[in-house]
Amino acid sequence: MLYLSSFVLSLGQGMILPALPFLVSELGISVAAAAQVITAYALGRFLALVPAGVLVDRIGARAAVIATPILIAAAILAVAAAPTYPALLAAMLIAGGAEGIWNLSREIAGVGMVRPDQRGRLMSGFMGSSAAGMALGSAVGGLLLEIASFRAVLLLYGLLSLGVGALSVFGRESVPARAERAARSFGDGFRWRSMLNVPKLIEEIEPGLRRTFMVLVVATFVMTMYRMFVQAMVPLYAGSYLHFSPSQVGFLFSIMGAVLFAMIIPAGLIIDKLGRKWATVPSTALPALAFVLMPFCDTFAQLAALFVLLGIANGTSLGSIAASTYDVLPAASRGRLQALRRTLAEIGGISGPLLGGMVAGASNPGVPFLVVAPILLLSALWIAFGAKETLVKVPRHTP
Predict the structure, then answer these.
(1) For residue 238, is it within any domain?
(2) How far apart are CA 160 and CA 11, in angstroms?
(3) Cα separations (Å) of 347 from 115, 194, 340?
(4) Sign (positive or negative) of CA dihedral 110, 111, 113, 117
(5) Contacting residues for 39 by C-beta, under 8 A, at least 6 apart
(6) How much is the pLDDT for 100?
(7) What's 176's DSSP letter?
(8) Which residues touch 177 (CB under 8 Å, ≥6 apart)?
(9) Number of domains in the chain
C-alpha cells in the first residue's frame, strides 16, 4: 500500500517538471523565476518537518498518511482553476509541506514493520517507487502539455493525490504503538521546544555514533540539493537553452527513472548485505562526473547517456542514507531526529534551484552544473572517511 501510494504521488509531482520551460513563455516569467516553482515545493517541505517529527513520535503516522495527500489535492486543484504564477507558487508550497510530512510518516510506519537488516530493501523500495513515479510523470506531463494544457497537468496531479488519500484509509496503524503512546501524557508529547534544543536531542544518540549522524545530515543536505537542482535546472537547460520539446525533456527523466527502477533490488541487496557506504559513496561521486560533462552536451543522445549514469547513481543510493540514519537513531525519538536531519537537509533542496537560477541568470543554464560538481565530490569523500559503517551483519548459525 505504501509503495503504491509513493508511486502515485510522485507521478503527479513528476508531471510538473516538463512544464517549467512552458511557464517561461506562457506566463511571461524568466528562467530564474520558473526555477523557483521547485524552490517553493522544497520550502514547503522544509517548513513542515519540525511539526511532522513531533506528531509522528507522539500520535503515530496513520492520520498524516491519510490527510496529507488530500491537502495536496486541495492546493493543486484550487490553482488549476486559475494557474497564475503567484497561485502556482502557493500551491507548490502547500504541496511540498504535505509531501514532506507524508514521506516522514511513510518511513516511520515502514521501519516499524521490518527487521534492521531489511531496512535497506525497505527504503530502496520506497525511493524506487517514488523515482519510478517521477520518471513516468515527467513523460506523461510532457505529453499532456503538447496535446492539452498546463491546467490539464494540474488537474490530473490533484486527482491522483486525492486517490492516494482515499487509498491510505485502508492502511494499518503505524508506530508508535498504542502502548507507547499511552505511557506518555498528551501535554508532554507536544513540547515543541524539544525540537529547538538540538544538542540535547543529539545526546539521545549513542556517543560513538553522533559524528556519523552529523555526516549523514550533511550528506542528506547535498543529495537533496543535487536532486532538486536536477529537477529545476535540467528542464531549463534542455528546454529553454537547447530548445528540446517538453516530451523530450520528460523522456530524459523517464530514462533516468527506468534505470533507477531497475536498481531497486540490487541496491537493496548492496545496502543490506555489503554495507551502507558501498552505496552512499559512489552514488554521490558519480553525479559529480555527470555534472562536469553536462554543459558540454548539446544533443539528446549525449544527455540521455548522462541520465543513464544519473539513474545508476540514484539507484545505488536508494534508501542508503535513510537506512544508515535509522541504524543510528533510538526508537523513541526517530521522528524528531529524522525531522531534524531532514529540516537541515531541506535547506539544500531550497538552495539547489535558488543557486542554479542565480548562476544561470548571470551566465547560462549549463554553468551551474560546474558549480555543484565539486560539492558532490567533497561530500562523497567525507562519507567515505568521516562516517562509520552502520550495518550490523548478523552471523549465520552453523550446526
Answers:
(1) yes
(2) 8
(3) 31, 20, 11
(4) positive
(5) 228, 232, 350, 353, 354, 357
(6) 82
(7) S
(8) 112
(9) 1
Q: What average pLDDT does this structure show over 223-229?
A: 86
Most confident of 103-117, 193-207, 376-390: 376-390
Cell of 356: 542554479
Q: How confident is the model at residue 291 (pLDDT cuts 50, 70, 90)?
A: very high
Q: Tell how many helices (H) and how many strands (E) occur in the chain.
A: 19, 0
Cα→Cα distances 312→157, 170, 264, 266, 267, Å: 27, 34, 10, 11, 10
Q: Provide CB contacts within 8 A for 355, sequence distance 6+.
A: 225, 229, 368, 371, 372
C-alpha R_g of the chain: 20
Q: Residue 184's pLDDT is what?
A: 41
As given in the structure block, the three cell numbers for residue 392 are 550490523
Residue 336: how many CB atoms within 10 A of its CB? 23
Q: What is the pLDDT of residues 341-387, one digit of tens each?
A: 877 777 887 788 888 888 887 777 888 899 999 999 999 999 999 88
Q: Domain for residue 157, yes or no?
A: yes
pLDDT, tens only, 3-26: 788 888 888 888 887 877 777 777
d(CA 159, CA 69): 10
Among 392, 10, 395, residue whose Cα is nearest residue 206: 392
CATH code: domain of residue 266:
1.20.1250.20
pLDDT for residue 267: 83
Is 297 domain-assigned? Answer: yes
CA–CA dist 131, 355 (Å, integer)? 23
CA-CA distance, 205 to 341, in Å (whole number)?
A: 13
Q: In which domain, by residue range, is 229 found? A: 2-178+204-386
Average pLDDT over the chain, rounded to whole? Answer: 80
User: Is there a domain that residue 192 lies in?
Assistant: no
Nearest to 51 by CA among 344, 333, 335, 348: 335
pLDDT for res 247: 81
In the numeric block, which cell numbers belong to residue 166? 482515499
Rounded CA gap, 141 and 138, in Å?
5
